[in-house]
Automatic annotation (TrEMBL):
A single MF term (Gene Ontology): glycerate kinase activity
GO terms for biological process, alphabetical: organic acid phosphorylation
One Pfam family of this chain: Gly_kinase
Annotated protein name in UniProt: Glycerate kinase
Length: 379
C-alpha cells in the first residue's frame, strides 16, 4: 500500500495547517482510496506551533490570560508529561490588536501568565514558540507575570510595556516563580537579531508594531536601560547576543533571567511531533504553505520538512497558494513538483475563499497523475 505523509504549514489568512492537510488528504483518498494517507501539520515555531503539537497527540490546555494591552484573551497550550508548548502569538500577538497598535504600551505579560499556569501544573520543560509579537518590551511583562519586580528610582513598580522601561532602575528577582530554577526553557525562533542597535529588535521590527520615528527612539532608549538593569541583576549581558531581539526582545529577557536557549523553529517543531518516526514507511511527502518563495528557503516549515524527507530518501512535492520558486530553487530544496492554487484560480480573493476545495482538487490530481509513480519508488 502506498503511504503518503501530508505535512503542510498553514495557508496564512485562509486555512490552518490542519485544515490544509485534511483538504489535501481528502483529495488524495477520493482520487485513490487505496492510498494510506497520514496528516502531520507543522509550524515554524510561530503561530500554529501549539496546534501542531496537539495534532501529534499532545494534550490541549485552555487558559484565560490577557492580550498585549490587557484585554481578556483565552488561549491554549500543549502538554505531554512534564513538557509544555506555549505560543506567544496566541496570547500577546500582533493580530490580537488589529488596527489598535500600541508600540510603547504593549507587553508580554499575558505570555508570562500562560507560562506560570504551565509551571503551576508541573511543566518542567517549556518550549515557547516566538513570532508575531505585538510588543517591544524585552520580556519584561513576561517576567513581571512570573513575579519579577521592575522598579524606578523611587522604588515604585514600573508600568507594563516597552516605553515605561526607560524609567527602570533596578530589578528584584526575589519573587520569581520558584519552579523556574528547575525548568528548562527553549525558545523556538529563526531570527538572529540582537536586542539593541541598527539590526536590533526596535530598529528592525518596531515599525511593524506601529512605532514611529519618535517611538523608535523611545523604545531603543528603553531597551538600552532595560538591558543595563537586567545585567546588574543577573550578571550577564545578552543584549548583543544573536537571537536576543526575537519577538520584541522576548528572547533577551528569557535568556538572561530564565536561562532559556534558542533553537531553530522548524527543527524544534519536527522534534515535538516526532516527525522522524512519522517518515518511517512513507513513499511520498507533501509539503505546503500559502506562498512558496525565496523567503521559504530560509528557516520556513515546508523546506525544513522537505530537508528531513530528502535525508530519508523520500520524494517530496509541494502544494501552495502561489509559487515563486524557479526550477533551480525547487531542485535545491528537493521538491519534485509544485502545485499552486493560483494555477486553478488566479483571482486571489476567490482562491482564499475556496482554498479547501481547490486543495481537494489538487489532491485528486496528484493521485491521478503520473506523479503517483513517485510514491511507488520504495515498493
Amino acid at each position: 500500500m502506498t503511504h503518503v505523509l501530508v505535512a503542510p504549514d498553514k495557508f496564512k489568512g485562509s486555512l490552518t495547517a490542519a485544515e490544509v492537510a485534511t483538504a489535501i488528504a481528502d483529495g488524495l483518498t477520493s482520487g485513490n482510496p487505496e492510498w494510506d494517507v497520514t496528516c502531520a501539520p507543522v509550524a515554524d515555531g510561530g503561530d500554529g506551533t501549539v496546534a501542531a503539537a496537539v495534532a501529534a497527540g499532545w494534550s490541549e490546555i485552555t487558559v484565560d490570560t490577557t492580550g498585549p494591552t490587557g484585554q481578556p484573551v483565552t488561549t491554549t497550550y500543549a502538554v505531554r508529561g512534564s513538557a509544555a508548548v506555549v505560543e506567544l502569538a496566541s496570547a500577546v500577538g500582533l493580530t490580537i490588536l488589529g488596527d489598535e497598535l500600541n508600540p510603547l504600551g504593549a507587553s508580554t505579560f499575558g505570555l508570562g501568565t500562560v507560562i506560570g499556569h504551565a509551571l503551576d501544573h508541573g511543566a518542567r520543560e517549556i518550549i515557547v514558540g516566538l513570532g508575531g509579537s505585538a510588543s517591544t518590551d524585552g520580556a519584561a511583562g513576561l517576567l513581571q507575570a512570573l513575579g519579577v519586580r521592575i522598579l524606578d528610582s523611587g522604588g515604585d513598580v514600573v508600568a507594563l510595556g516597552g516605553g515605561p522601561l526607560r524609567s527602570a532602575r533596578s530589578v528584584d528577582l526575589s519573587g520569581l516563580h520558584p519552579a523556574v530554577r528547575e525548568t528548562q526553557f527553549v525558545l523556538a525562533c529563526d531570527v538572529d537579531n540582537s536586542l539593541l542597535g541598527p539590526h536590533g529588535a526596535t530598529a528592525v521590527y518596531g515599525p511593524q508594531k506601529g512605532a514611529t520615528g519618535a517611538d523608535l527612539v523611545a523604545l531603543e532608549d528603553a531597551m538600552t536601560q532595560w538591558a543595563q538593569v537586567v545585567r546588574a541583576a543577573t550578571g550577564r549581558d545578552d543584549s548583543r547576543t544573536p537571537g536576543a531581539g526575537a519577538a520584541g526582545g522576548t528572547a533577551f529577557g528569557a535568556m538572561s533571567v530564565l536561562g532559556a536557549t534558542v533553537r531553530p523553529g522548524i527543527e524544534t517543531v519536527l522534534e515535538l511531533i516526532d516527525f522522524q518516526r512519522r517518515l518511517d514507511g512513507a513513499d511520498l511527502v507533501i509539503i505546503g504553505e500559502g506562498s512558496l518563495d525565496e523567503q521559504s528557503l530560509h528557516g520556513k516549515a515546508p523546506i525544513g520538512v522537505a530537508n528531513a524527507a530528502r535525508s530519508a530518501g523520500i520524494p517530496v512535492l509541494a502544494v501552495c497558494g502561489r509559487n515563486q520558486l524557479d526550477a533551480h530553487h525547487m531542485e535545491g530544496a528537493g521538491i519534485s513538483a509544485i502545485y499552486a492554487l493560483a494555477d486553478l484560480e488566479p483571482d486571489l480573493h476567490r482562491s482564499i475563499a475556496n482554498a479547501a476545495e481547490l486543495l481537494r482538487t489538487i489532491g485528486r490530481a496528484v493521485s491521478a497523475s503520473e506523479l503517483a509513480t513517485l510514491s511507488a519508488q520504495g515498493e
